[in-house]
Amino acid sequence: MSGLTTFHNLVGGKQATAAATFESFDPYKGEAWALIPRDGPDQVSQAVEAARSAFRTGEWPALTASARGHLLMRLADLIEEEADALAQIETRDNGKLLAEMSGQLRYIPSWYRYFGGLADKIEGRVLPIDKPGMFAFTRREPVGVVAAIIPWNSPLLLLTWKLAPLLAAGNTVVIKPSEHASASTLAFVRLFERAGFPPGVVNSVTGMPDEAGAPLISHPDVAKIAFTGGEAGGIAVGRTAAEQLKHITLELGGKSANIVLADANLESAANGVVAGIFAASGQTCIAGSRLLVQRRIHDALVERVVALGRTARFGNPALLETQIGPITTLRQRAHILDHLAEARSQGAHAALGGGVPDHPGWFVEPTILTGISNDMRVAREELFGPVLSVIPFDDEDEAYHLANDTPYGLAAGLWTSSMESAFRGVETLQAGMVWVNSYRTVSYMAPFGGYKRSGIGRENGQEAIEAYLQTKMVWIDPAARTANPFVIR
């Protein structure tokens, strides 16, 4: 194990000692490069206790809301200073393009500045109550210790979507990153001490889902679980939350439709379709993995998308000219290839790709499948890879029916030059986010989340901070009058 970079967790403001470690692999080189702590229930309990103590006593609860906001602003400055180094760690750990990771790291400070500004805008209200002589008002208070569980595809961005609002609201946190990409999170949490956050406000644990994840979400002192990941994991988290009556936010998967009407600008639509599925090697929950195209432009659009797909350069994700990086895990690559084999056996045709390139690393070729019907598994299940299923339709009614005929409802794209069609699509599509003549656009100001099996709650925007607050109702009788104790007042 010599030569491997060793990372450590942060618990109670100190570097935690690991009882055991496991290797993290570079998906491009296919070899171990880092050692990550392998935590268990004891380490989880220590982290939760540190977060619970910091929430209840000491500096953090004594801070004014404005002071919390200033800490988030300071953190944003430090992230800007460390953006390049953090992006490089993330690229090596999960194989995502350095160009994309660098862009994300440069954008992430905006979240902390936005929610830092919101920290002292959290307000209760005085109620014009119908009870004479009573003074009634509400307080908005933090929920407590939050378990933030994040996936491997964009760890620091998706962590930020949780951290920025929960800290602005006054909560404390225990972070559990994916065992497949923990390194950037462990490098990132070092910044909190430098920013001036009190010890125990931000803590981390790492390891396997059953050894560290399950004890974390079931810990009695965890008040809320904020989870981003796959549907199976979300169901398990939701079941635990229901059994223990915990607050919950779930951001899960999608099988999003990118719909192209015949009147669309085909060049723009083709660019948007490629961006929706091949960017990030399709390893994004909002991937536009179903292309619904009006039949009379089907061949012309597919030809354009195939031509664009052929130009995609795959290779070392650390090189800025690379456009397609490897799949993060061998297990995920096998999952994608199994779906492709089944689709071919059912009559699908690979207009582009469909296999593994003759290239080192855990790659899957950018793939475009035609001959797909909406009831095939490849069109219904999330592959989390660079695979596009093309499905033709005749008219708008059929397009929206096909788009909505899925258990998911995270996102949808619509390409058209008709404002009437645009607004009709916006009203009809059952998705938490709809892009018109655009795709894969996000902002710290814009709520992010899905309908149906794509999740519960919203991240980003002002809605996000509400998910980390609870309302306290306060009644005051200034006169302290004696009331009939046997009758509700």
Specify the helix fraction band: 25-40%
* CATH fourth-tier homologous superfamily of the largest domain: Aldehyde Dehydrogenase, Chain A, domain 1
Number of helices: 16
CATH topology assignment of the largest domain: Aldehyde Dehydrogenase, Chain A, domain 1
The spatial strand order of the largest sheet comes to: 15-16-17-14-13-19-20
Known CATH architecture of the largest domain:
3-Layer(aba) Sandwich
Give the overall average pLDDT: 96
Shape: globular
Detailed description of the structure:
This protein has 489 residues and is of the alpha/beta class. It folds into 2 domains: 5-252 and 454-473, Aldehyde Dehydrogenase, Chain A, domain 1 (3-Layer(aba) Sandwich), CATH 3.40.605; 257-436, Aldehyde Dehydrogenase, Chain A, domain 2 (3-Layer(aba) Sandwich). It has 16 helices and 23 strands. The protein has a 7-stranded mixed sheet with strand order 15-16-17-14-13-19-20, with helices on both faces. Strands 10-9-8-11-12-22 form a 6-stranded mixed sheet, sandwiched between helices. It is globular. The termini are far apart. The relative contact order is 0.13. The mean pLDDT is 96. Residues 20-474 form the Aldehyde dehydrogenase domain. The active site is at residue 251. This is Aldehyde dehydrogenase.
